[in-house]
Each structure stands twice: as structure tokens, then as C-alpha cells.
Design brief:
heterodimer; A: 22% strand; B: alpha+beta; Nucleotidyltransferase, domain 5; Dna Topoisomerase Vi A Subunit, Chain: A, domain 2; 6 domains; 6-stranded mixed β-sheet; 17 helices; globular
């Protein structure tokens, strides 16, 4: 320990920081308007110290896992000495280390006796950020400017005085103003709740003791990650993953993560192709989230998290102007899912080479939809991202099947999709299906979790249906030798039903869906773990009984031949023949 | 109370507590070992104990009771062990997986954990029957009920030997026709099956919550039905005057039929009587703002009551199952006398949630336990008398406590054993304080405005430390602390919740009329139910609440309102109650913005006479109650001071004890830190106050 800290006080301080972060989250979630906030948990609250290093992040969404760390430093650096008690700063611009513009972040410096001690920070996904396409995702954007309103670091409270003019400028540029105003209030509530608790902590222990405890908490996290790195053999490990062409015609793109473990440190090099005129470029801040998610899929650490964890991890995102280190004015709105999930996969895969028994399979990638239109019930417009439409299957682990309906990878189970009735109450829609999909989980000794289908019809007026993401051709990557024969059922797709015809779409689109028509958004399952033919026959039969695996899937993916769909009797001889001679299965 | 006795029988995990109140104000507490396989055995054993003590027969006691009240863990245990009955679900086609999708969420705390398993499904996927039918959010029917699908589902269930069925359709709260018709078909085809209809059990918006609640109810229903039948029979045989009342997790009593029809109300009833008991204990002091903390061997349960009204949970995950119906909000932590101190991966001292349980128990029990527990720390700190646990029936080994704390905590952290023990005491207290924050601060209440009531065998040893940490000035410790929940049950009223769904903006006469008529309708049902139960109209009370939010918000905020007609003149009272609550919870309100209602609820109480409060005789010579002095540690540096130990049985009303001191009661030990003093009140509670 650098300075002698009382171990008891240390535990107490950590408890207060965790409680504070939790209370910020409760305040935000219960009051926000946007379903993306209050149903979907697409937000993160964090506490920084004065330097500013992240000293506490909760359970929130991996999308925001890393990006807050450089963003906070960038925002504080922008204002330099011009930071005062009572200030509140707003920011979303990826050029200042933001993730994607629709994730808008509020920063409140916390002062104690006129000394800057903490920052309380609340970042969340708004329903809209202006620009030509409702809800922000514009597949046609060739530049950042066509995706919405860029907000560089700007004060919305200046020494305690609210900047109504600035807020009005921002709100005037956004759709659904009432909800947006409510969401900004909710964020403000969160950073204020954080401030209230932290000041009570300082009252009790004083600045010096609290700072010493925080320094020690960071040092402990550092030691923990270093000991994990030390447990992996020194070496250079490479993982490559593909961002599939989601209809942009630019072709598949490969991202390479090279992990160099040396002693107790880890260096990660990212190589990605030049940036593209499509909304899948990732600026540096966002790319940190992808890299750190790949690290956490290896490290599997329990909360709480602080920046100390990453002291031994250095990252080179590659040259500016590349897919994973974009420069202005590259369009980027899809970046928190695509290419972030592929970036995480590449890093995860590199770690799998280093510690195969420790790393779980990839999760289904996000491909989902936003909806917008006119709500005749209240004579007002509506627009929202539909988080229920991106719920994919989780990857299997070395110990168990993947969770159903827990993804996508970039969220890792942190989302909640919202109740069907609440969604139909909030928006003029009919949700015909929200269910698991047969044969969608990746085959393996441990099966990947099933993906979901979300099928919608507008209530009485045409609806704009905007899709994003990928994972419609390449299934979630298995681990430890897991592969699937039935690929088509493992990947995502969109099905549009019109006049008895079903059109299958595998690219990002903007469509108008009329009442009486339906659009179904289907998400991939998670990757499997281990050889599929090693999965016990009774487990395969149980999956068939429950409709998670079809008869064809049992035979094709698992080499299990079931004679009768009613009795589910297994042809033991045929099964063992298939399983011992995998080639004969074809 | 017009008859001689009232009996409360509360089955816990280890002990079944018996509380017998008589009409002179005496309250007696007995304990018998629980018998989970056949709970009537424990009841028989307990009644024998009472009979022996009072020189009467069990029949004399039971037939001399105005009410026999039972708190049971039968439903809870079946849910924990997944030993409910084979259950089928009838649901809207396309939505059969909502209980497995669980809103796509994995519980916080396990984000990157590769081992954390998915929740066990109470209804496997092949027993979830998809029915073609659809009601829309407008209440209109888009697809009529395909009755042949319901019949096919019944055929499947019969073939599979299903014993309980839950029916839950999307938007059945707006139009119950399809659920009702499906129920008729099920009753016709499966006359003996236990049936739960989602929209009847929990008529509130939220399909996932409603379906999950209905399934849990069906899954446990037959178990509760069988249990209730055997208990009712047992007491009837002994000459009970009235049907046995069962304690529910909503904090009130119910008759057996209601308990088996609505079994989901039984699942967390154990700690749900604490608020009633807390209010009763605080009543002589004119306090209606009470936090109860009940610390036993393995867990720490917290409840909060403000202005006599207790926080309720609705729509929460309980044992990983989403439950909609109101349950007394009980925050439960793994913090008890048996909680183990350990050093985590980061090198930080932690206490709990793992517990040494009863076997091997704390190291000082000398049953082979090597892990240092909170009880071990309390022995080292001089709080717990090594020779006088359970009224001297059990002795403790201080050296074993010392060795365990030294080996596992003190040596690794390079601290003295005394400092390490005080550290464990501090950490477990801190965990408890954070738990109390979750029911108070997170719900917008300042704990400093409340009286703390200590319960459970271990609570009183920590109570002044907790109070100091939270800035609470007044603490009450009833002599009956270790049996407080059982006592709470015998002073509770019969209580039923009636709900309705009313998604509408709180604007205009049509909206007000709709709310008024809904309240009238559900309260009419409730009054009828209670009257059939034997309550005169003047013994029936009604309270109302409404779930509201700003237009655009998704989560509601429950606000208590008075029993008045909602109109242009009174609607502001409703809205202002909401704005005020929102500001209290979240630091701001938006009075200029539109407010909408989602659900309404009326709670109906059948008032039950309360037993006489006890009266203690006067004391006058507290000094004489001092049994000995011993070293006690109240400081982080581990230094000890000599403090007196009082025999609580020798103290009388009005006696004052300055801290530092320890008071030993038969089933609990009260620690009074320096800076606090205690005064025994004639109602049988110690009043602990901070020195001026």
C-alpha cells in the first residue's frame, strides 16, 4: 500500500461508492421518459476523482464500459481551469471521445470546501438526436453531420445558473421534445443524487482519508488484473473477426486484435481497414469499449469496476482514419453494436488462443430496429429504438449452455427489453411475437442461447421501420471447436409480410410498414462451446421436446437421429454411426 | 379480546415460534423445532410445551382462543426447492416465451460470470400452449379466441399429467372475455385441476409480470391447498372457534380458502409481520415512523413504515421469479450472527453473505466451525456472554472465537485480534446500513426521521452502532425481540388487496368517473368478501392508492390517496400527492407536465381486536441487576473498557442504564455503546437514546 489505509475504512468507502452509484441508477431509471433509458438500461453512471480517473462504475452496459474513461478526461481537459462549483456539462460528440452521438452524457464536478474532489457522470441513449432520420440511425449518412446534432462539451449549468438558452438550442433540434426534456431532468437527478452522497462521505471521513482509500482501491484493481495477466503464458496471440456487409456493398471487413502478454502486462494492437462512408465507423472512445469488453470476456471479474483494472492494459487502435479509429467526419451511429461487437470478438478470440479453458463463446450480434410515426391516440409523433428487437442469444461458456435471449454481445445481459403491454401502451403498435427461435443457438457440447424474434404491426397509421446492425450471415463465433451445420437458422434476418407474401431481408433498410402488414426482426443465437457431437443425447432430446432444436437440427448439428416426433425415440445405432463418423453426416 | 387467549404459530426455518397472548396483557413466547415434512408435528410439540407451562390441555388452549394464526413457509420452501406441482400455461400465441426471455435481462452482479445459471422454468416450454387470440391495447379484439386451441392444450395437459394451469392473455386486463371463456373450457375438461386466471389474480398492466405471477400461483396452489386443509382440520379437531387465519406477505391475515386460491401471497410472509409489531412497540411513544431490523442467525430483514403505512413491493423479482402482487417490502441481507468474515480477492475484509448456519455454527460454538463469524467477533468484543446464551442453556468457547478471527482475519491483515473483531463488527454494520438505505434513502425517506426497532436474537447487539452510523436518535428494543414476528402476526388485521388497471391521462371528467367507478367496483367485491368472512361493515376499513407517472415515463410511483370522489375540485390533491412524492424520491418534480394513471388499488382490512398491551411493574434498583463487569471493546483501535452486565429479568419499569453496558435478556443481548443510555418502559421495551 502506498499510504497506510485502515482496511476497515477502505471497505466502508467502497460500500458507499457502490451504494452511491446504485442510487444514481435508481434515480435515472425510475424517472426517465425514453424507453431506451427506463426499460432498456441503456445508460451508465460512473464516479470519477479529480484527476479525473474512473473510480466506480456499476453493472451497467458494456457499450459504455470503456468510453467514459477517455471522454471524461477529454471534457475536463477542454474546460481546463474554467470549471466551477455548480457547473454541469453536456456532451455527445465522438470527436471528443463520445461513443455515438445519441448517447448523451452529463458531467457534474463535485466540490468540497471549494476543492474539486469528484465528478458524477451519467450517460444515456436518448430517443432521438435530431438529423434526418428519427432515432438517429441513418444508413444513408455519408458524414457525421447527417446523423444528428453534435454537442461538443458545453455548460448547461454555469456556476449553478441554468443555461436555458443552450438547453433550448439543443431541445429545438431534437424530436419528441417533451420526452427529451424529461430525460435530461432524469440525468440531472442522477448526478445530483451522486453529489449528495459523496459530500456526506467526505463529511464523515475527510478528503485525505477518502482519497487514500480510493487510491488503494485502484491499486487493488490493478494488482488483480496483473495477476490474471501473469497467469497467462507470455506470447503474442492473434484474433481475427469479420464485420459482414450489411447491405452497404463495401464488402466484408476484417478486424484483427493482437494481444501481447508480457509478464503482468497486456498490449493490444488493433488493425482495421480504412474508414467507410457508412454508419459503422467507430471513433476512438467507443473502440475502447469494444476492446475492454473483449478483455472482460476473458477476465470475467465481478463488480465493482474502476480504472485501475486497465493500468496494465495498453491499446493501440491503429492509425486515424480507420474503421476502429475513425476521424471526422466519418458517419458512426451504428458503432456501439457494429463494429464494436466484432472488435470485442477479435480481442476475445486472441485471449481464447492464450487461455482456451477460460474464455466463453461469442454472443449474438445486435441487429435491430427503430420505429417512428404518428400516434393518433394522443395526436403526437413517436420515435424510439426498440431494444426488444436486439435481444440475441448468449454464448455458451466452458461450464454451461448460453442464456437464451440475453444479448446482444455489446450489452451482455444488462438490457431489459420492456414489457409487451407497456410498449403497446407507449407506442401505437401491435407486437405479434416476442419469442425464442428454433435452432438459433449455436451447436456445441454446451449450446449457445437462443435468439429472439420480435414481430410488429402498426396499430392504425403507417410506421417507419429502420434497421441496423449485422449478424445476418455470419453466426456468433463458437469456442473450443464448436461449429454449427445449420447456419441459416443461427443468423438474424428481417421478414416483412405483405398481402400473404413474406420478404426476407438481410440488410439495413428504411421501410414503411402499413397497418395490416408485419415486420419481424430476428436476432442470432449465441455461439456454442466444445464439439457438438459431445453433447449428451438426452440434452438434445430435451431441447427437441421444448422446440429449441428441430429434428433436422438434432440430426445435422448434433448427430442425433430421432425416429418419431411424438415419442422422441432415438435411433441409437444411427446416432452413434453419425457421431463417430462426422463426415457421413453430410 | 373477548376470550381468554390468542395464539400465533410462526414456522421458521429452524424454530417454530409460539406466541400466546392472554386477556390480562401477558404475552408468552415458546419455541419448538420446526418439522418441515409435517408442520402439524411442530405445532403439536409447541402446544404440549404451552400446555405443560399453563397446566392445561392443548384443547383448553385452542378452544379458549378467539383466533389461531399461522405463518407458514410451506409456499416459500416449495419455491426455493422447485417442488411445486407440474403446471401448464395457456397464453397468447407469440408470447409463450415471455417468462423465459425475462425481459432479456441477466441479474446485475453476474455480468461476466460464466457459471451463473439461468432461472429454472416453473413451466417448461413444451407445456406453454400458444392460443390464437388477441386483444389490443385499445381493448378491441383483433383475433377472436380459437377455442379449439384451448381444448388441444387441455388434451396435452391431461396427457402430461398437469396438476395446475395458469391462463394469461395479453391485455386481458382491458378485456377479460377470452381468459374467462378459456377458464370455462379448462374447468369443463379438467375439473380437478388447480386453475389460476392471470387477469383475476393480478389485474394490472404488464403481461410478463402477470403471467409470471399467475404461473407461480398455480405452481404453489395445490401445495398450499393441501397444507391449509391439514392445519384447518387439526385446529378444528381441537375445538377452535373460528377458522385458522394465515399470515400473508402483504402483511395481513387471510382465511384458508383465500390462502390456497392466492398462494402467491404466502411466499414471503415470514418477515412481513415485522411492521405491525414495530408499530405496536412504538405506539406507546406516539411514533408512526418505524424501521424494523430483524437480525437472526443467517439473515437481516429490514422493513420501513412511514405514518403508519409500510412500503410495499410490487413487480419485483423474488427468488428470481417476477411477482406482481403487493408484498411488504422486506430487504433481506446475508448478515446474521453466523455470517462469516473473509478476505476477498482484492484483499478487502468482507462479512457474509455466507453463513456458518446452525451446524457447524460460529467457531465459539465448539462444533468444529473454523470460520470467524459475527457472533465470534461479538464474543471477543465482550458483548456476548460466553456462558449465558439462551438463558444459560448453551456456553461458548471464547478461545475458539479468538483463534478463528486471528487465523482468518487478524494475521492476514496484520491487525490485532481485537481490531480485527471490531473491523468485522464495523463491516457487518456497514452492510446493514447500506441495506437500510435501500429501503429508506432509495425510496426518498431520511432514516433519521425514524425510530429503529430491533428484533431477532442478534439485532440488539448491533442496534446502537447502527443507529449511530445513520444518525438515528431513538431505538426501541422489546424484551420479546427474538419472537417479534410471531407477535406481529397476532396483532394483524385480515387484509386483502384489490386491484384494477386504468391506463388513462388524469384529465377530464370521463377519466375521473372511470376511476371512481373502478374503485367502487373493486371495493364492493372486497366488502362482500370480508362480510362473508364474518366482519360487520363497521369493522371494515379501506385505503386507496394509485400508480401514477408523468406522461412518457414508464415506471410508476405509488401514491396513497384518501377515500374521496375524484373530481375537478379534488383532482389536484391527487396530482400534488404525486408531484410531492416524485420530488422526494428523485430530487425534482414537473408540476407543469401531464400526469397519467396506470393502475389503482384498494386495500381492505377486516379489523381484529388487539390483545391488551403488557404492563411491567416498577423497578427502582437497577444497580442490583448488575451481575458482573467485563472488558468491552467500543473502539477501532481495539482497546477495552470495563462495562457492567445487567440481568434484564431483574429490571423494572423506569430503570435507567447508562452506556457502556450490556443487558442480557433470555433470548437476546442488548449492547449500549458509550454515548447512549437505556430506559425500560412499562410496555416492556427498552428505550435507547443518545446522550444529550
Amino acid at each position: 500500500m502506498s499510504r497506510k489505509v485502515d482496511p476497515i475504512t477502505l471497505s466502508v468507502v467502497r460500500g458507499v461508492l457502490e451504494t452511491t452509484q446504485r442510487e444514481m441508477t435508481v434515480a435515472l431509471e425510475k424517472t426517465a421518459r425514453s424507453s431506451v433509458f427506463n426499460l432498456a438500461h441503456d445508460y451508465s453512471n460512473a464516479i470519477f476523482n479529480h484527476t479525473p480517473e474512473m473510480i466506480m462504475q456499476g453493472q451497467d452496459i458494456p457499450i459504455h464500459l470503456g468510453s467514459l474513461i477517455p471522454a471524461m478526461k477529454c471534457v475536463a481537459g477542454y474546460f481546463g481551469d474554467d470549471i466551477h462549483p455548480g457547473d454541469v456539462i453536456l456532451h455527445n460528440d465522438p470527436a471528443y471521445m463520445g461513443s455515438h452521438m445519441i448517447d448523451t452524457c452529463m458531467y457534474k464536478p463535485v466540490y468540497y470546501n471549494d476543492e474539486l474532489v469528484f465528478w458524477t457522470v451519467c450517460k444515456g441513449h436518448l430517443t432521438d438526436i435530431g438529423g434526418p432520420v428519427p432515432a438517429g440511425y441513418n444508413p444513408d449518412a455519408k458524414e457525421l453531420y447527417a446523423e444528428g446534432l453534435r454537442i461538443p462539451p458545453v455548460k448547461i449549468f454555469d456556476k449553478g445558473v441554468k443555461r436555458y438558452d443552450v438547453m433550448n438550442l439543443i431541445l429545438t433540434n431534437l424530436r419528441a421534445r417533451r420526452d427529451q426534456e424529461g430525460d435530461f431532468n432524469a440525468q440531472l437527478g442522477a448526478v445530483q443524487v451522486g453529489e449528495r452522497n459523496l459530500i456526506a462521505l467526505l463529511d464523515k471521513y475527510g478528503i485525505d482519508v477518502v482519497r487514500a482509500c480510493i487510491d488503494e482501491l485502484m491499486a487493488m484493481a490493478d494488482r488483480q488484473m496483473r495477476s490474471l495477466m501473469r497467469s497467462v503464458p507470455d506470447g503474442v496471440y492473434v484474433g481475427k473477426a469479420i464485420v459482414e456487409d450489411a447491405g452497404h456493398g463495401l464488402g466484408d471487413m476484417e478486424i484483427t486484435g493482437t494481444v501481447t502478454i508480457k509478464d503482468d502486462t497486456c498490449h493490444i494492437d488493433i488493425v482495421s481497414p480504412p474508414q467507410v462512408p457508412y454508419f459503422i465507423n467507430s471513433y476512438e472512445g467507443n473502440s475502447y469499449s469494444g476492446v475492454y469488453l473483449g478483455v472482460m470476456m476473458f477476465a470475467q471479474l465481478p463488480p465493482p469496476y474502476n480504472e485501475g483494472l486497465y493500468r496494465c492494459v495498453s491499446v493501440d487502435m491503429g492509425p486515424k482514419g480507420t474503421l476502429c479509429n475513425a476521424k471526422e467526419p466519418a458517419p458512426h451511429m451504428n458503432c456501439t453494436t457494429t463494429p464494436m461487437e466484432t472488435l470485442a470478438d477479435a480481442v476475445r478470440l486472441a485471449f481464447e488462443q492464450a487461455a482456451p479453458e477460460h474464455v466463453s463463446a461469442s454472443w449474438g450480434h445486435a441487429n435491430g430496429c427503430n420505429i417512428a410515426g404518428w400516434d393518433t391516440r394522443h395526436d403526437e409523433e413517436y420515435v424510439t429504438m426498440v431494444l426488444a428487437s436486439i435481444i440475441s442469444g448468449a454464448g455458451a461458456t466452458p461450464l454451461q449452455d448460453g442464456w437464451h435471449a440475453c444479448g446482444p454481445e455489446c450489452c451482455f445481459g444488462a438490457l431489459t427489453s420492456g414489457d409487451v403491454e407497456l410498449l403497446e401502451y407507449s407506442y401505437p403498435i401491435i407486437i405479434h411475437r416476442y419469442g425464442l427461435m428454433t435452432d438459433s443457438g449455436g451447436a456445441g457440447k454446451f449450446r449457445g442461447g437462443s435468439g429472439t424474434c420480435w414481430e410488429v404491426e402498426p396499430l392504425d397509421k403507417p410506421m417507419t421501420f429502420i434497421t441496423f446492425g449485422e449478424g445476418r450471415r455470419i453466426p456468433a463465433m463458437g469456442a473450443a471447436g464448436a461449429t454449427s451445420k445449420l447456419v441459416e437458422s443461427k443468423v438474424g434476418r428481417i421478414e416483412i409480410s405483405r398481402g400473404g407474401e413474406v420478404e426476407i431481408v438481410k440488410k439495413n433498410i428504411i421501410e414503411t410498414i402499413e397497418p395490416g402488414e408485419r415486420a419481424a426482426n430476428m436476432n442470432p443465437g449465441g455461439g456454442g462451446y466444445g464439439e457438438a457431437f459431445e453433447r449428451p443425447v438426452d440434452k438434445v432430446v430435451w431441447d427437441v421436446k421444448n422446440g429449441l432444436v428441430s429434428l433436422e437440427g438434432a440430426r445435422g448439428d448434433y448427430g442425433v437421429v430421432i425416429l418419431d416426433p411424438e415419442s422422441l425415440e432415438v435411433d441409437t445405432a444411427a446416432t452413434s454411426a453419425l457421431r463417430t463418423q462426422p463426415a457421413a453426416a453430410e | 379480546m373477548r376470550t381468554k387467549y390468542r395464539l400465533g404459530v410462526d414456522a421458521g426455518g429452524t424454530f417454530t415460534d409460539f406466541v400466546l397472548a392472554d386477556n390480562t396483557g401477558n404475552v408468552r413466547l415458546y419455541k419448538a423445532l420446526s418439522t418441515p415434512d409435517d408442520p402439524t408435528k411442530a405445532i403439536k410439540n409447541g402446544l404440549d410445551l404451552i400446555a405443560e407451562d399453563l397446566l392445561a390441555s392443548p384443547r383448553d388452549i385452542v378452544s379458549g382462543c378467539d383466533l389461531c394464526i399461522n405463518g407458514t413457509t410451506v409456499g416459500l420452501n416449495a419455491l426455493i426447492q422447485h417442488k411445486g406441482v407440474k403446471t401448464g400455461l395457456i397464453c397468447t400465441s407469440g408470447h409463450e416465451d415471455s417468462i423465459e426471455i425475462r425481459l432479456g435481462h441477466k441479474e446485475d452482479g453476474y455480468r461476466y460470470d460464466a457459471e451463473y445459471p439461468p432461472a429454472v422454468m416453473l413451466v417448461p416450454r413444451y407445456l406453454r400452449a400458444a392460443i390464437r387470440e388477441r386483444i389490443l391495447s385499445t381493448g378491441k379484439t383483433q383475433t377472436p379466441l380459437h377455442e379449439e386451441d384451448v381444448r388441444a392444450a387441455c388434451d396435452l395437459f391431461i396427457k402430461e399429467g398437469v396438476q395446475a394451469v395458469a391462463i394469461s392473455f395479453v391485455w386481458s386486463v382491458l378485456n377479460p372475455d377470452h381468459e374467462r371463456r378459456a377458464a370455462e373450457i379448462v374447468r369443463e375438461m379438467m375439473p380437478d385441476v388447480f386453475l389460476t386466471v392471470g387477469g383475476e389474480l393480478y389485474p394490472q398492466v404488464r403481461e410478463y409480470t402477470r403471467t409470471s405471477t399467475a404461473i407461480t400461483n398455480a405452481y404453489l396452489g395445490p401445495i398450499l391447498k393441501k397444507y391449509v386443509k391439514s392445519i384447518d382440520h387439526y385446529f378444528a379437531e381441537l375445538g377452535a372457534k373460528y377458522p385458522v387465519r394465515y399470515f400473508q406477505s402483504n402483511g395481513g391475515l387471510a382465511i384458508g380458502q383465500a390462502m390456497s386460491d392466492r398462494s402467491v401471497y404466502a411466499i414471503n410472509s415470514g418477515p412481513a409481520s415485522a411492521p405491525q409489531a414495530g408499530l405496536y412497540v412504538a405506539n406507546p411513544f406516539d411514533k408512526k415512523d418505524v424501521i424494523t431490523v430483524d437480525m437472526g442467525g443467517t439473515s437481516f430483514d429490514i422493513t420501513l413504515t412511514k405514518d403508519g403505512v409500510t412500503n410495499l413491493n410490487k413487480n419485483i423479482d423474488f427468488l428470481r421469479y417476477r411477482i406482481g402482487v403487493p408484498m411488504i417490502q422486506v430487504e433481506t441481507l446475508g448478515a446474521g450472527g453466523g455470517s462469516i468474515g473473509w478476505i476477498d480477492e482484492m484483499g478487502l475484509l468482507q462479512v457474509g453473505p455466507q453463513s456458518a448456519g446452525a451446524d457447524p455454527g460460529p467457531a465459539c460454538y465448539g462444533q468444529g466451525g473454523a470460520e470467524p463469524t459475527v457472533t465470534d467477533a461479538n464474543v471477543i468484543l465482550g458483548y456476548v456472554n460466553p456462558t449465558a446464551l439462551l438463558g444459560g442453556r448453551m456456553s461458548l468457547d471464547k478461545q475458539k472465537a479468538y483463534d478463528a478471527v486471528k487465523a482468518r482475519i487478524a494475521d492476514p491483515l496484520d491487525l490485532s485480534v481485537e481490531r480485527a473483531a471490531y473491523g468485522m463488527f464495523t463491516i457487518v454494520n456497514n452492510n446493514m446500513v447500506n441495506g437500510i438505505r435501500r429501503v429508506s434513502v432509495e425510496r426518498g425517506y431520511d432514516p433519521r426521521d425514524f425510530v429503529l426497532v430491533a428484533a431477532g436474537g442478534a439485532g440488539a447487539a448491533h442496534i446502537t452502532a447502527l443507529a449511530t452510523e445513520m444518525g438515528v436518535d431513538t431505538v426501541l428494543v422489546p424484551k420479546l425481540a427474538s419472537g417479534l414476528c410471531a407477535f406481529g402476526q397476532i396483532i394483524s388485521d385480515v387484509k386483502y388487496n384489490y386491484m384494477a388497471s386504468a391506463p388513462l391521462r388524469l384529465e377530464g371528467v370521463a377519466a375521473y368517473d372511470r376511476l371512481n367507478s373502478l374503485y367502487k367496483e373493486i371495493e364492493g367485491q372486497g366488502v362482500q368478501h370480508l362480510e362473508a368472512d364474518g366482519f360487520e361493515r363497521d369493522r371494515i376499513d379501506i385505503t386507496r392508492s394509485v400508480d401514477m407517472r408523468y406522461v412518457g415515463q414508464v415506471h410508476e410511483c405509488t401514491v396513497e390517496i384518501g377515500n374521496f370522489e375524484i373530481s375537478e375540485d379534488t383532482v389536484d390533491k391527487v396530482k400534488n400527492a404525486f408531484h410531492g412524492r416524485h420530488e422526494q424520491l428523485y430530487t425534482y418534480s414537473e408540476p407543469h407536465n401531464a400526469v397519467e394513471v396506470v393502475n389503482i388499488e384498494s386495500t381492505l382490512y377486516g379489523r381484529v381486536d388487539k390483545p391488551q398491551p403488557p404492563r411491567l411493574g416498577g423497578g427502582g434498583n437497577a444497580e442490583a441487576a448488575i451481575m458482573l463487569r467485563r472488558p468491552m471493546i467500543f473502539s477501532a483501535d481495539g482497546s477495552a473498557i470495563e462495562g457492567p452486565v445487567y440481568n434484564g429479568g431483574m429490571l423494572g419499569a423506569g430503570d435507567e442504564i447508562p452506556g457502556p453496558a450490556v443487558i442480557e435478556e433470555e433470548t437476546t443481548t442488548i449492547v449500549i455503546e458509550p454515548g447512549w443510555h437505556a430506559k425500560l418502559h412499562e410496555s416492556g421495551s427498552y428505550v435507547l437514546r443518545r446522550d444529550a
